[in-house]
Specification:
heterodimer, A: about 425 residues, alpha/beta, Fumarate Reductase Iron-sulfur Protein, Chain B, domain 2, Rossmann fold, 3 domains, four-stranded parallel β-sheet, 21 helices, B: about 220 residues, mainly alpha, Fumarate Reductase Cytochrome B subunit, 10 helices
């Protein structure tokens, strides 16, 4: 179902009644049976709090995941639920005020990574992370998105497709420079290619070596591949901000770029949310099944290592692995990194909570963008810190640049002596000649 | 018309009608919302939607091991309450007789002592659940009037049932009337509040399980 677009209210202004109305209309616009079931089913048992790193680390009950969508749940009951008429006639749910909604911004953005650990513990099977994402759509429509998000969206992503404001010409130059610096052949804007590879903005800014790593591996495989300047940045800050129109624009630009060169595979970078968006939502946005596969880089690596297309030297190293929530728990690609680490001969010391039950790093879902959330993020990071230290491993590998960045920042704040590294770059650095 | 005749006659018929209509209305109101088509190709090699949804309906009864240390009290209380209630409802001689009168089905009852212990555990767990709801900061924040009303409407049949079984604080007929009426009150409220989770729990788990199984993700 594609709902009518609801234009966002002007950001930065005080919320008023019309903004609240926009938020609630946007929220209920896309409610189908599964989201309605989720909102109808809560028994207020509070177990979701015990799965949330923000609650566990602070004991603040406001961080209870299901509480974060409370104003929107009330809007559903009043406007769309089976007893909506009675709710309205008898005033059974109070109308949310503009001020209250403004106060909810911290709960929906600063203190939720949409990591879905709460969804895993819920005895009723409520996907709370999905409801938070929908609530963010409402907050965006009301102009109640944190300023830090707007910086990336208003000025950059919406005009260039990249939250750092990179134009296609700048991207092309950057790829050329990376190719020269790392001595690797880059394929850009090929007319036809089997694989279209995308990048994450965090890689563009922080880890350009990862783009060289992708190129090195694809060249090693003898693949027909290309970067496309008409659809390169998969980061999609719009998605985490709640900007449906922006999210759609970024997603479709990648789909169209892949269609234009007849690709059979779109390769997603080390980035969590971009994977779930492209793998599980892009086809819905496009309106029909896509004529190509969408693989996260770890899936391609695992496939290549298993088939022999990628040949690596063994690595004598003990390490642990941090699962990105959107790739593992919510994306379904939990097994791939383990296949890679095994193929490399890494002595893997799994975290106490690894794979599907892994704790979030604290930075996902755009939370890392919010400067004022730094102290809260650092508290959430302590869980990961404790679990990594318990393994005795010196290096933490991950397959998400956002997690990598958050773990590095958290480690720096905690004077940590662990190395955080990319699994992709580990493979690229150990390819057999 | 005596109180017992009222409870067994018009009150019973009205409560069954309201409960049935309410449940149907609420389920239909949810399930008739417009469904969004799923165009993404499912992950290769995963179970089908029905198998995934069905297994999640069962698997969510038991939380994953890592969650236990923080939710053991909640899980044990909930299990004790629901199991106790099931034993009393399906194993008590009087309830089996009632079921036989309505449906024609019957099965052997459990020993009276066992049922008495189960009803005591049900009552005890209910009281502790209320105390937790009043004292635990998270539960206090989440709780609404529905939580307390639903608790009361479950508590009353349990208490009147125990009094009836032991015939204390009133005559048999009065206690039986009060017990039936309290059950009917609960039935009337069931579709409108959280007691509806009895009807929603499997669809809710099933829909989520089917969706996540398709992705090969954790259910």
């Amino acid at each position: 179902m594609t709902s009518e677009p609801i234009p966002p209210a002007s950001p930065g202004t005080d919320p008023d009644a019309s903004q609240v109305g926009k938020a609630m209309r946007r929220f209920i616009a896309d409610i189908g049976p599964s989201a309605a079931l989720a909102m109808e089913s809560c028994v207020h048992c509070g177990r979701c709090a015990e799965a949330c790193h923000f609650y566990v680390q602070t004991d603040d009950p406001r961080y209870t995941p299901i509480h974060k969508i409370e104003p929107f749940k009330q809007a559903y009951e009043r406007e769309l639920g089976p007893f909506a008429l009675a709710y309205r006639m008898f005033g059974l749910t109070p109308k949310i005020t503009a001020k209250e909604l403004q106060n909810w911004q911290e709960l929906l953005y600063d203190s939720c990574n949409m990591c879905g650990r709460c969804s895993l513990i819920c005895p009723m099977g409520i996907d709370i992370a999905d409801l938070v994402e929908r609530a963010r759509h409402g907050m965006f429509a009301a102009g109640l998105v944190p300023e830090d998000f707007l910086g990336a969206l208003e000025e950059k992503e919406n005009s260039t497709g990249s939250p750092y404001g990179l134009t296609t010409a700048q991207f092309k130059d950057m790829l050329h420079d990376i190719g020269t610096k790392y001595g690797v052949v880059m394929h850009v804007d090929e007319a036809t290619a089997d694989i279209v590879t995308t990048v994450s903005s965090i890689d563009l800014k922080m880890y350009p070596s990862s783009m060289a790593a992708i190129a090195r591996i694809l060249n090693h495989m003898g693949a027909s591949w290309t970067f496309r300047t008409d659809g390169f940045d998969a980061d999609n800050v719009s998605l985490t901000a709640g900007d449906r129109a922006g999210q759609r624009k970024i997603t479709l630009s990648i789909v169209r770029a892949a269609l234009a060169c007849g690709a059979n595979t779109v390769l997603m970078p080390e980035c969590g949310h971009s994977y779930t968006e492209m793998r599980w939502e892009a086809a819905n946005t496009f309106g029909r099944e896509l004529p190509f596969r969408i693989l996260q880089i770890t899936e391609l690596l695992a496939e290549g290592l298993s088939s022999g297309l990628i040949r690596v030297n063994k690595v004598s190293q003990s390490a642990t692995y941090h699962d990105a929530c959107q790739i593992s728990r919510r994306g379904g690609a939990t097994a791939a990194p383990r296949v890679i680490l095994r193929a490399l001969g890494v002595d893997l010391h799994e975290l106490e909570d690894a794979g599907d039950t892994s704790w979030c790093c604290g930075g996902g879902g755009g939370v890392a963008l919010i400067k004022r959330a730094q102290p809260l993020r650092d508290k959430a990071f302590q869980i990961k810190q404790r679990q990594v230290e318990a393994t005795g491993a010196e290096t933490v590998y991950t397959s998400c640049s956002g997690c990598r960045q958050t773990l590095e920042h958290g480690g720096k704040a905690a004077n940590w002596n662990k190395t955080v590294a990319s699994l992709l770059e580990l493979v690229a650095g150990n390819l057999k000649a | 018309m005596t109180l017992l005749e009222f409870a067994r006659g018009p009150a019973f018929r009205a409560s069954v009608a309201i409960m049935t209509a309410g449940i149907v209305w609420r389920l239909v109101g949810i399930l008739l919302l417009r469904r969004r088509a799923q165009h993404a190709m499912p992950r290769v090699g995963v179970a089908g939607r029905i198998a995934g949804g069905g297994s999640t309906m069962i698997s969510r009864f038991i939380p994953r091991r890592t969650f236990w240390p923080r939710i053991a009290a909640s899980v044990l209380l909930s299990t004790l309450f629901h199991a106790g209630l099931a034993i009393v409802l399906l194993g008590g001689a009087a309830h089996i007789l009632l079921i036989e009168q309505v449906t024609g089905l019957r099965w052997p009852n459990l020993p009276q002592g066992f049922v008495t212990i189960a009803s005591g555990l049900t009552l005890g767990s209910l009281l502790i659940m209320l105390a937790r709801r009043l004292m635990h900061p998270v539960l206090r924040l989440l709780s609404t009037a529905d939580d307390y009303l639903s608790w009361l409407l479950v508590f009353l049949p349990v208490v009147t049932g125990i009094l009836l079984a032991r015939e204390i604080l009133g005559s048999y007929e009065t206690l039986l009337s009060l017990h039936i009426l309290s059950v009917e009150l609960m039935m009337i409220w069931l579709p409108f509040g959280k007691l509806m989770h009895g009807a929603l729990v499997f669809p809710s788990r099933g829909v989520m399980g089917a969706d996540f199984t398709r992705k090969g993700a954790a259910t």
